[in-house]
Amino acid sequence: YDDWYLPSKYELVLMYENIGQGNSLGLGNIGGFANVGYYWSSTEYDDDIAWGQDFYDGYPDDSNKDNDTYVRAVRAF
pLDDT (tens digit, 9 = 90+) per residue, 4-51? Predict the structure, then answer.
């Protein structure tokens, strides 16, 4: 398939709230995200920094693009 993409900062927040550790239904981590994982988004802060979502504590944050971290590609629908 050619419709995969890196989610935006806002989409990652929604993923945390609905299928990650922070889901409001109390279902637990049904998305299989790393418990102490920070995931990149496609939203850039500037040329060297991008936004991501911490799936441990739920906070979005910016980080240097040189840092190793998780990614979760999603499909368009």
Answer: 999 999 999 988 888 887 777 777 788 888 877 789 999 999 999 999
Rounded-to-integer distance, Cα 25 and Cα 18, Å: 8
Q: What is the DSSP letter of 8?
A: P
58 Cβ neighbours under 8 A, 6+ residues apart: 16, 17, 20, 21, 22
Q: pTM of this prediction?
A: 0.83
The one-letter amino acid code at 53 reads Q
What whole-number distance in Å separates Cα of residue 77 and Cα of residue 50? Answer: 24
Q: Give dist(CA 62, CA 75) in Å, integer.
A: 24
Rounded-to-integer distance, Cα 57 and Cα 22, Å = 8
CB 11 within 8 A of CB 51: no
